Amino acid sequence: MNKSIDPIGKLMGLRYKSHPWHGIDLGPQAPEVLTCFIEVVPYDTVKYEIDKSSGYLKIDRPQKYSNIIPALYGFIPQTHCGNIHAAITNKALDRTDIIGDNDPLDICVLTEKEITHGNLLVKARPIGGFRMVDRNEADDKIIAVLIDDAVYGDYQDISDCPPAVINRLKHYFLSYKDMPGEKRGVEIPEIYAKEEALKVIRSTMEDYRIYVEKLLFS
User: What's the pLDDT score for residue 1?
Assistant: First the structure.
């Protein structure tokens, strides 16, 4: 039975476009090396994001100010920020009120190349991350480097990255949702290294497994 189903599954994958969140494989070396889906690049003045239902890229919002993402930005397929990830965040920050945001885990990929559009897949190696909280939702941003990148490709940990690069990313995420007269709801209380980043990714991979099981059997 399995032998007859497997070719059909492969054919379906060739005939129909895979959903970027659910249909893209992380790769055999995950979480150390990941296949990532890129939604936004530094050239974009509009924030794009995946429509969860259809898998197509959609306009989330035009950027109202001069905030430009200083890296490739997207998400890690087959991850989900749920209860396990929220528990890690609560423990790290000594809180009890944080919940998962129910989205795939976000990732920023550093490269010296000028990549001019999103809606593409890249292979990246995590080197650290931001423990970010948007109001009371865990919204971590994994920091990674493009595999074989001429400038960033040899970086093994976030400590290898110039502080100016990290500060630029941090400033973007602390300000990209700002509106005049409104109280900022985003905070980055911690920047963590590679080992914690891998732990966070694994937690969201497990959250995703639970999320899919509930979809299938509920």
Answer: 37
